[in-house]
């Protein structure tokens, strides 16, 4: 999941040259995800977009998400309110609000359009009227493609991911694609697989009919913590 962790030079580009964002439509973007590739820009000020396909793909197995004892305590405290798609644009803006970002205005507009069509979703962590953490991504079939996350308070991005994994499990998803691993994501259970293995898992996931909203149910801390691996 592309947050603040790695510079653009660490990525594996599928195309040697960038293309104008005006040539990319939301429909083309969905086809790209189905083919195992995704877009990014080199910086917020660069209007061009690259197609990217990592040689090794980061995923979080939906039966292997790790929650530490300290994080479990925070989840049980219910100090935050979890919302779905309440302010998608604010989540994208918060993810881009860092010194270096691959999210330019063209990418933000593309995902906002996907959100309007029901394919892109945000899971948000609120404290009162303040948005303090969250994650957004794209749902297609039984695959969820995590795009970026942010945290304005300690552990709020981890809480967001914990609730997201619970929702994906409940909705019948089989693949949680985080694109790249980082120490942060590895501590939560992320792993790398080969491009060939990823494509196999992607094809199987796309054949499923999953429901991100899972009946619009409200997930409790117990829903999030059950079946999860506790670590020290």
What does this structure look like?
The chain is of the alpha+beta class and 232 residues long. The chain has one domain: Aminopeptidase (3-Layer(aba) Sandwich), CATH 3.40.630.70. Helix content is 33%, strand content 26%. It has 8 helices and 12 strands. The strands form 3 sheets. A 7-stranded mixed beta sheet has the order 6-7-8-9-10-4-11, sandwiched between helices. Strands 1-3-2 form a 3-stranded antiparallel beta sheet. Strands 5-12 form a two-stranded parallel ribbon. Helix 3 runs antiparallel to helix 4. It is globular. The N terminus is likely disordered.
Task: Explain briefly what this protein structure is.
This protein is an alpha+beta fold and 232 residues long. The chain contains 8 helices and 12 strands.
Helix % is 25-40%
Order of helix and strand elements from N to C terminus:
EHEEEEHEHHEEEHEHEHHE
Strand order of the largest sheet: 6-7-8-9-10-4-11
| Distance between the amino and carboxyl termini | 24 Å
Strand fraction = 25-35%
The CATH homologous superfamily corresponds to Leucyl/phenylalanyl-tRNA-protein transferase, C-terminal domain
How many β strands by DSSP? Answer: 12
Give the count of structural domains.
1
Major beta-sheet overview: 7 strands, mixed
Content-based structural category: alpha+beta
Total DSSP helices:
8
* Rg, alpha carbons: 17 Å
